[in-house]
Write a structure and sequence with these properties.
single chain, 241 residues, alpha+beta, Phosphorylase Kinase, domain 1, Transferase(Phosphotransferase), domain 1, seven-stranded antiparallel sheet, two-stranded antiparallel ribbon, 11 strands
Length: 241
């Protein structure tokens, strides 16, 4: 796996006949291996030409699986020289978590070494309850006419901390946040990028617009004005988006 050695450092790695499997801890490897022995969705959540997302129950544990497709033709040849996508995304989660942000770090994953399996790499997560998604929380708030501002403030505090630490996510829509007893959690870090300094204001504004559009789709009127206003109040004095 070209360029992957540094990303595998600190992970438990095992080579199988057709796959390299990896995990944060040795006992978590079994979930990846068991999944590959019985691959296929219990409930398919999303399928695109590039990925497959599904729920799977194994031995009493409910898993969330994200598989990344192999390339075709010249693209597959090009993949030979690239770090497999699952490892790049795993590195995003580990970097983000080690910086002190609450997220759902994968249990582990796999990279295809050879054979005819369609999914070249993938990640395995513990399942998070859908009712804890921030989108579901906001739907309940809007249905009850409760003030959404305190909950929105929590999401924006999280975003602001991210931006100050240099982390930028292309698609921080409300459904990518979970509201858990331990705090706000962010998932779907495939597009995570880290700047050397703080995230530039133009990109911060783009994040706020993405979040606001997702809230408007839930029925929150005036979402952009509310999001920008609250976010600016959270900035250190003299800074603005």
């Amino acid at each position: 796996m070209p360029g992957a050695d540094g990303m595998l450092e600190g992970l438990v790695v095992e080579d199988l006949s057709s796959f390299t499997v990896f995990a944060r801890e040795k006992d978590q490897l079994r979930w990846v291996k068991d999944l590959l022995q019985d691959f296929g969705p219990e409930r398919e959540l999303k399928r695109t030409p590039k990925s497959l997302i599904f729920r799977k129950s194994l031995a009493g544990r409910v898993l969330f699986v994200k598989a990344y497709a192999r390339g075709r033709g010249f693209r597959r040849l090009a993949e030979f020289f690239r770090v497999p996508r699952a490892l790049r995304v795993m590195a995003n989660y580990l970097s983000f978590s080690s910086a002190g942000f609450l997220t759902q770090v994968p249990l582990g994953g796999w990279v295809l070494r050879g054979g005819f399996f369609s999914w070249g790499s993938g990640l395995v997560f513990d399942w998070l309850p859908p009712e804890k998604k921030a989108s579901q929380v906001f739907l309940r708030i809007l249905a009850s006419s409760e003030d959404p501002e305190p909950y929105l403030r929590l999401l924006l505090l999280y975003l602001r901390r991210m931006h100050e630490a240099g982390f930028y996510l292309r698609d921080p829509k409300v459904s990518n946040f979970f509201c858990l007893p331990e705090g706000v959690l962010l998932v779907d870090l495939d597009s995570l990028k880290r700047f050397r300094g703080k995230v530039p204001y133009g990109k911060r504004r783009r994040n706020l617009e993405v979040l606001a559009r997702s809230l408007e789709r839930l029925g929150l009127t005036g979402a952009l004005e509310m999001v920008v206003s609250l976010y600016e109040k959270l900035l250190p004095q003299g800074e603005e988006t």
